[in-house]
Amino acid sequence: MNSDEKMTLPTQGRRNFLKAIGGVGAAMSGILHAQDTPSRPSGAKYMGDFAAPKLDKVKVAIIGVGARGSGHISQLAVIEGVEVVGICDLDEGRVKRSVDNVTAKGHQPKSYTGDENAWRKMLSETKPDAVFIATPWELHGPQAVAAMKSGAHAFVEIPIALTVEEMWDIVNTSEATGRHCMLMENVNYGREELLYLNMVRQGVIGELLHGEAAYIHELRGQMNGGDSTGSWRTYHYAKRNGNLYPCHGLGPVAQYMSLARGEDNFRRLVSFGSPAKGRHLFAQKSTNLTKPEFKTLDYQCADINTSIIKTHLGRTVLVQWDETSPRPYSRHNLIQGTLGTLKGFPNGMAIEGVTKNYHAWTSSEEFEEIASKYEHPLFKRVGEMARKMGGHGGMDFLMLFRIIECLRNGEPLDQNVYEGCYWSSVAPLSEKSVKEDGMPQDFPDFTRGGWKTTKPLAVVS
């Protein structure tokens, strides 16, 4: 699973990028008073259960069409009610490939490339209803804010932004403009994640107590082979130390627990990191590094980060991140209640009165037998189509399908702007906790108290 974009940065862009990364630590100083909640500006609207006016046709533009964005725009182009109006990337070849792809599917998008601000021109000329942002991390926040100010809903790859300050800017802009800003957490749309959400909502495992979430995915190879995600992402590992990619595992667990949605919310976290060894060792052995300087970078980021979140109700969530160690892929995806536990990697259930033996995980046969009774209705309706369309086993397509469906029906999105900020804020908060030897860090209340009346995510059909 890799939710980021291969996007070339020209010389000036690289300089600005390095300044941005170097400035992350300085911007984190705003976390010192994360519990201090700024008042909502006059005229702004709480977006927790917000539903935008229906759109018969959704005019779509995209910024960034490397490995991630090119897949998004190709899938969006086949969803009913979508009109692709603009495609932007710094690399002209990538733009042409995506334009040719969607043109063959009946669209007539305009091309924007060659300039760092070409995306701004695209926003003003094509006036899209929805902008999909699949660019390097440091661009997410500014581009999301600009998209909303241009009148478009913004859909942003992970993370929604790098700093708490940027996240507040996103929240304030969304509330002021009445435009959605959604973190594209595709893992919420996996078959097992939807299944567990349905089981939790039906009370199968009782009252929720604890969750475990992770993104464990060995990606050292991104440091090799020319222009790739690693060409810009590697600098994050060198200059930052925390859980830099928390959302994949955390998103589903947060929605099981209805965090920031009526029942409970994020309260504080502590974070610790292991020694930083793997990136340096890999760079010394590699003969195919994208940049020679990767051999001499002082890699600060722990090979594995472990953070623990405490919620307002006292529940706990373990969140781990490791893109360095040679080990099997895992998102953990565990949710534990008073009657039992559901887990992933491998899948298993242990439920009092439901499974044959709660002292052992279910066999694959027993798992499927129980799953057939609780399959999520959305997956029943769209799952087969999503699998045929692909994108991480269909998760990508199902996510995009739901985005367009909600916009066309005038329904609230499955993830609101506040959830995207809470999930993404684990990164800067964990960095500060690691720096302070595990001292607790309070989450900002991005909802300004609105979470208490926001409806939990329904089991949509």
Description of the structure:
- The structure is a single chain.
- Helix content is 37%, strand content 16%.
- It is α/β, with parallel strands linked by helices and 461 residues long.
- The strands form two sheets. Strands 13-12-11-7-10-9-8-14 form an eight-stranded mixed sheet. It has a six-stranded parallel sheet with strand order 3-2-1-4-5-6, sandwiched between helices.
- A hairpin with a 4-residue loop joins strand 12 (340-343) and strand 13.
SS-derived structural category: alpha/beta
Computed CA radius of gyration, to the nearest angstrom: 21 Å
* Strand order in the sheet with the most strands: 13-12-11-7-10-9-8-14
Mind describing the biggest β-sheet?
A: 8 strands, mixed
**CATH class categorisation of the largest domain:** Alpha Beta
Mean pLDDT: 93
| Count of runs of 4 or more consecutive helical residues | 14
CATH architecture of the largest domain: 2-Layer Sandwich
Note poorly predicted spans. Answer: 1-17, 25-34
Distance between the ends: 26 Å
Q: What overall geometry do the principal axes of the alpha carbons give?
A: globular
The total beta strand count reads: 14
Number of discrete domains: 2
> Portion of residues in helices?
25-40%
Give a quick precis of the structure.
The chain has 14 helices and 14 strands.
